[in-house]
Design a protein that fits this description.
Layout: E1 16-21, E2 24-38, E3 41-50, E4 53-58, H1 66-72
Antiparallel strand pairs: 1-2, 2-3, 3-4
């Protein structure tokens, strides 16, 4: 019998998030995510919408609200 684990992500596909882009706060949406499990732990990479389609960003660089983003600076 194998071990079972639950991975909880900060955001889900479709969620609206905030990030810094070109020194400005920008709101965008999560398009998809990639979960990497290694011997060092779990890394969550989000893919967010942009003018070219989508781009990857680490969970630590996106925020649920503009206020959370500003407080992180």
């Amino acid at each position: 019998m194998g071990k079972e684990s639950t991975i909880r992500t900060k955001f889900q596909v479709g969620d609206s998030v905030w990030r810094i882009r070109n020194m400005r706060a920008e709101q965008t949406n999560v398009c998809r995510l990639n979960i990497n499990i290694t011997s060092k732990g779990v890394e969550v990479v989000y893919y967010i919408a942009n003018s070219l389609g989508e781009t990857s960003i680490l969970e630590s660089n996106i925020f649920a609200t503009k206020q959370e983003l500003l407080e992180s600076l």
